[in-house]
């Protein structure tokens, strides 16, 4: 059904197998920093118009691959598609970010929550299949979802938040309700990711974007436990082929050892972690992904190249049983100059080859 892979370096690094260079892709690589994305977004009329249209979603997913020799594509979608399918009424206002028409803050709203009918997310799965076909084997396709905790933050807050006051208040005052939300979310996320795999995703990633706002103890109970539940239910292979699973917790460095034992093949790191120290801690349990500060990309090209080399040198040359996927420590900024990405990808590929040659 799909063309054979021409570049499988990303998948091999995820599984801690040898690669000729360190593969690189960027969180939010299809996005507002690219003028061609902005033009397509204008044609679509709205963010949801873009995300729910198979042709547009395919077009913008492939746009960064036309500019840069990236080693993986990631589905263009949003982490909030799952709660939207639960009937919460997602919308995006220009300059304001996501908003939900209905929030989940009381017993009645929590009791009404259920794993959504996946047919409501058919547009996502159709996009996965369309993108996989359009890639024609060039690079692997990554599917993704928000973590149960991160989705709950938006569902309770009604949108983004600076202080997470409402969701934390519910968590501390009514942990029973919070656990009910998180269990529904975990079952929904696992089903959603499995459906993406069935549609053609060759790896999947769980974005625990707001796990790091929790206190020690609360993180393990309300975030990591449910990411673990998701990972235990997500397929490890499809049609005889391994499907790597990535877990990224922004602000999760304190809990690296526990995250590495959560069941993922790859642990994503934000830019606050020392990559070499992280490698020493996780050993050969998982591959690592990351972790350049996204703001490095506002520096001149030579500085971008120097910082890319520093990340690669910190990890060191891969050895048997280790794996590194180069990425940013969080999503690329909409204000990033595309020429900085050109310099970054080129330096990652060239310097990582030199590191391997030095072995």
Automatic annotation (TrEMBL):
Keyword Manganese annotated: no
Pathway: Porphyrin-containing compound metabolism; protoporphyrin-IX biosynthesis; coproporphyrinogen-III from 5-aminolevulinate: step 4/4
Enzyme type, top EC level: lyase
Residues marked Transition state stabilizer (site): 78
Subunit and interaction comment: Homodimer.
PANTHER family: METHYLTETRAHYDROFOLATE:HOMOCYSTEINE METHYLTRANSFERASE RELATED, UROPORPHYRINOGEN DECARBOXYLASE
Protein name stated in the entry: Uroporphyrinogen decarboxylase
UniProt organism field: Roseateles puraquae
Upper lineage: Bacteria, Pseudomonadati, Pseudomonadota, Betaproteobacteria, Burkholderiales
Gene behind the chain: hemE
């Amino acid at each position: 059904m799909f063309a054979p892979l021409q570049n499988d370096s990303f998948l091999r690094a995820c599984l801690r197998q040898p690669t000729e260079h360190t593969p690189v892709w960027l969180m939010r690589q299809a996005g507002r920093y690219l003028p061609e994305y902005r033009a397509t977004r204008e044609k679509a009329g709205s963010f949801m118009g873009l995300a729910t249209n198979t042709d547009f979603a395919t077009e913008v997913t492939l746009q960064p691959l036309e500019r840069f020799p990236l080693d993986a594509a990631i589905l263009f979608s949003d982490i909030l598609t799952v709660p939207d399918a639960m009937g919460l009424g997602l919308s995006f206002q220009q300059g304001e970010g996501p908003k939900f028409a209905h929030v989940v803050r009381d017993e009645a709203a929590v009791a009404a929550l259920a794993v959504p009918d996946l047919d409501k997310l058919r547009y996502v799965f159709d996009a996965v299949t369309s993108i996989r076909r359009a890639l024609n084997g060039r690079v692997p396709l990554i599917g993704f979802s928000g973590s149960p905790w991160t989705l709950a933050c938006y569902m309770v807050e009604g949108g983004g938040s600076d202080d997470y006051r409402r969701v934390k208040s519910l968590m501390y005052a009514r942990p029973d309700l919070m656990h009910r939300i998180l269990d529904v979310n975990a079952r929904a996320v696992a089903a959603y990711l499995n459906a993406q795999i069935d549609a053609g995703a060759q790896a999947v990633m769980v974005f625990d974007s707001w796990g790091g706002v929790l206190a020690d103890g609360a993180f393990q109970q309300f975030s990591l436990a449910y990411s673990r539940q998701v990972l235990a239910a997500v397929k490890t292979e499809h049609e005889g082929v391994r499907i790597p699973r990535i877990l990224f917790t922004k602000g999760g460095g304190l809990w690296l050892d526990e995250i590495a034992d959560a069941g993922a093949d790859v642990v994503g790191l934000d830019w606050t972690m020392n990559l070499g120290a992280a490698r020493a801690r996780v050993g050969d349990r998982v591959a690592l992904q990351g972790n350049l500060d996204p703001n490095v990309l506002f520096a001149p090209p030579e500085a971008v190249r120097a910082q890319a080399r520093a990340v690669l040198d910190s990890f060191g040359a891969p050895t048997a049983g280790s794996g590194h996927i180069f990425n940013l420590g969080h999503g690329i900024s909409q204000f990033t100059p595309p020429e900085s990405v050109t310099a970054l990808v080129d330096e990652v590929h060239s310097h990582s080859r030199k590191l391997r040659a030095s072995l």
